[in-house]
Design goal:
The chain folds into 3 domains: about 100 residues, Orthogonal Bundle (Fumarate Reductase Iron-sulfur Protein, Chain B, domain 2); about 250 residues, Rossmann fold, CATH 3.40.50.10420; about 50 residues, no CATH class. The chain is about 50% helix and about 10% strand. It has 22 helices and 12 strands. The strands form 3 sheets. Strands 3-12-9-6-4-5 form a 6-stranded parallel sheet, sandwiched between helices. It has a 4-stranded mixed sheet with strand order 10-7-8-11. A two-stranded antiparallel sheet has the order 1-2. It binds iron/sulfur cluster.
Length: about 450
């Protein structure tokens, strides 16, 4: 089943679930990360206050975005950073390409940036003849494997150690069958070190842009953003316009929340502050809209722009954990991606808001208190009204509504269903049209309906 040429979430998840062992292991691995997040959060008595403050700061940012962006731009320019605006992915990629051309950059290293994934920068530059090297270890692994990230914080979380060993054997010449993490990491370190030394340009994302100072902050665990930017002459930072915070003093609130929510660490290993180019070097900042202003204009969904991309909602989501990031067919998967993606292409992503149990666990863990499950529910209503027609669902709802409004018919059909389920052969009940029953068994059929039971027992 597909929407246009794109598989629905359910169809893509079915592919992943064919490998039951991997699905189970993926679920357990992410749950472990969720538990680490809980332990880290519980150690801070002020955790809930931090979430409240972060949410309020982001509310302020969203309601003053225009002014704060101009302030940020002006301060950054005063610091000697060249600033460009990009209304969409195409403009973003063209800015990067032009900067590389103007500065005769031939070798480019890139640290993890979800925005550049969203804009398809690697593909764009590769078509122009550039060799773009992703330097985050997880990103490099999936780059070797010709895949896209399956998680925004742990891009290669879908791969097992053994598979990474095979990938390194093919691309880095490590010993066949070797999967010791220390050995593989050392091989990656040696490989990437050479790439850092050779590079003359470095691209990074931005975790937080500070309107008050015109500076920005990049968080990594491997120090790869620092290695790239310190060795290359040109630093291009790509930032979504929602990544702003008003003051430097606000930064501590977000840094305390980000790493704890993402991986359970107190802080990311490297929290790098960039304010101005070093003497003789150049620094560029590209501020990218790419649908964010449109999302800001949707009252029910504007809160989704508060996201600081910690990944906690993915780690806790029972659907994401079992179906993996690839099932979402979107740069940002999981619960928050299922809110953001329909805003960019409703037809393509119309199945995503339905990939949720609406249990609310995502909203519970979100460090900036986005009402994720409520927005997913809201998207379902919008999609039902405006999305592609779903005649089978509409007919079923109409029929259900009619039956429920006629008590005698409801009682009669209930009795009929109980009798048929009891007496029908299993093969007839679990037929190929019964998608629900593919992986599940119905409970034993009760002798009577609840109404009958209640009428018999209410006096006692
Ligand atoms: S929506 Fe919240 S929990 Fe999910 S990635 Fe964004 S900040 Fe983290």
């Amino acid at each position: 089943m597909a929407t246009g040429s794109v598989k629905t979430h359910a169809a893509a998840a079915e592919e992943f679930l064919k490998d039951g062992e991997r699905s189970h292991w993926h679920d357990e691995t992410l749950w472990h990360v969720r538990q680490k997040r809980d332990t880290a959060a519980q150690k801070l008595p002020e955790w809930e206050s931090l979430r409240d403050v972060a949410s309020q700061i982001k509310d302020y940012v969203l309601s003053h975005l225009d002014g704060l962006l101009l302030q940020f731009e002006q301060k950054a320019r005063e610091n000697g950073i060249e600033v460009f605006w990009a209304k969409d992915a195409k403009e973003h990629n063209e800015h990067v390409y032009r900067i590389l051309q103007e500065n005769n950059v031939t070798k480019l290293v890139k640290s993890k940036s979800i925005l550049t994934e969203e804009c398809g920068l690697n593909h764009f530059l590769e078509e122009k003849g550039y060799d773009v090297v992703d330097t985050d270890l997880g990103e490099r692994i999936i780059q070797f494997n010709k895949q896209v990230p399956s998680h925004i914080v742990m891009p290669a979380i879908h791969l097992k150690k053994r598979e990474i060993g095979d990938i390194f054997h093919t691309h880095l010449g490590t010993e066949a069958g070797a999967d010791d993490p220390g050995y593989l990491t050392e091989a990656a370190r040696q490989h990437l070190r050479q790439k850092f030394i050779e590079a003359d340009g470095a691209v990074t994302g931005v975790n937080f842009g500070i309107a008050e100072t015109g500076g920005f902050v990049v968080c990594t665990n491997e120090g790869n953003a620092d290695m790239g930017t310190h060795l290359a002459d040109i630093h291009i930072a790509c930032m979504g316009i929602e990544k702003l915070i008003p003051r430097a003093a606000d930064l501590g609130v977000f840094l305390r929340l980000l790493a704890r929510s993402a991986t359970g660490q107190s802080i990311t290993n490297y929290t790098s502050h960039f304010h101005r180019p070093r003497p003789g070097k150049k620094m560029y900042l590209i501020l990218v809209d790419n649908g964010r202003t449109a999302q800001l204009g949707r009252e029910d969904f504007r809160n989704s722009l508060k996201c600081i991309r910690c990944g906690a909602c993915m780690n806790t989501c029972p659907i994401y954990r079992r179906s993996s990031g690839f099932s979402y067919n979107a740069t940002v998967p999981g619960p928050i991606g299922s809110i953001l993606s329909p805003g960019t292409d409703l037809k393509k992503h119309s199945s995503l808001p339905f990939a949720s149990t609406l249990c609310g666990s995502c909203s519970e863990v979100c460090p900036v208190k986005i009402n994720i499950h409520e927005q997913l529910y809201k998207w379902r209503q919008v999609i039902t009204e405006e999305g592609p027609p779903q005649p089978a669902k509409k007919w079923a709802m109409k029929f259900g509504g009619m039956v429920m409004s006629k008590p005698r018919l409801y009682d009669f059909l209930g009795k009929l269903a109980r009798r048929s389920l009891k007496n029908s052969p299993k093969g007839l009940i679990y037929n190929r049209f019964n998608a629900w029953g593919k992986k599940r068994d119905l409970p034993d059929v009760p002798k009577e309906s609840f109404k009958e039971w209640y009428q018999k027992n209410r006096k006692s």
